[in-house]
Amino acid sequence: MENRISGSTRLLSLIGTPVDHSKSPIMYNYSFQKAGLDYAYLAFDIPVTKVADAINAIKTFNLRGSNVTMPCKSEVLKYMDDLSPAARMIGAVNTIINEDGKLTGHITDGLGFASNLRDSGVTVAGKKMTIIGAGGAATAIQVQSALDGAKEIAIFNIKDDFYQKAKQTVASIKQEVPNCIVQIYDLNDTEKLYAEIATSDILVNATLVGMHPYESKTPVKDATIFHKNLIVADVVYNPKKTKLMLDAEAAGCKTVGGLGMLLWQGAEAYKLFTGEDMPVEEVKELYFS
Ligand code: NAD
Asked: Is residue 1 part of a domain?
């Protein structure tokens, strides 16, 4: 690293809290070194109350850009000069690009989900999807899938505070992508859930269910309803294979785990920062296997 940093090296950052567990610094710095790009990436612990200061610092120090993680993804929105269509629809930003002081906010979570599926030979265009969840990850996937040409999206969530958010997502998709049929249902209506899964091409879990320490949980209790042609994707990456995925595999379904989404949303941000492709295969082997 000491041989790489010079007077012209441009900084990139991650802001949010906590950030000390993040794989982003090691993933990006490895890739910059490998590609001979004159950038360095550091994580900064920034609570919501410090977002304005962090945005000023991005401009003052002329950072190339920044990733944004929880809990700052919505707060940074009001400081952006421009937004990508997905960031505008979702109301959240995870990647900021700085062009001579003009800040554009993007969100790469949904792009990362789509690239991870594509990496497994699956595309969403023309497909019917059942997506369980209405939080940050779920909303990004729902909006991006609609923008990417999904034919139909059935959203299921428990009737908590996120249910209202899902209603907004449905309204936003209906307005911006009228060709996509989108509906929201109560996750506790299992009869409806199973009926929608039966006619879906892709099922996605984008909730906390199945995540450590609740590995024994799954949002789909009856594993007999999986049909062989169903692709089952989970955003949870700890454990790498959730109970939902194990049940689906036992029923003969192809499954896609959440770790790849994490990698690919970083690769999408890397492309925005540098204009180049991240060495995904190497990064995957070194840090994501
Ligand atoms: P969030 O807090 O924004 O949303 C939580 C979601 O889980 C909501 O839909 C909520 O209704 C649902 N939920 C919570 N408890 C539930 C229960 N008992 N039964 C059914 N639903 C329940 O969280 P998020 O940021 O969207 O994260 C969700 C999951 O996605 C986490 O496991 C997170 O690690 C993962 N994630 C993965 C990636 C990736 O790149 N793979 C990226 C972001 C998030």
From this structure: no
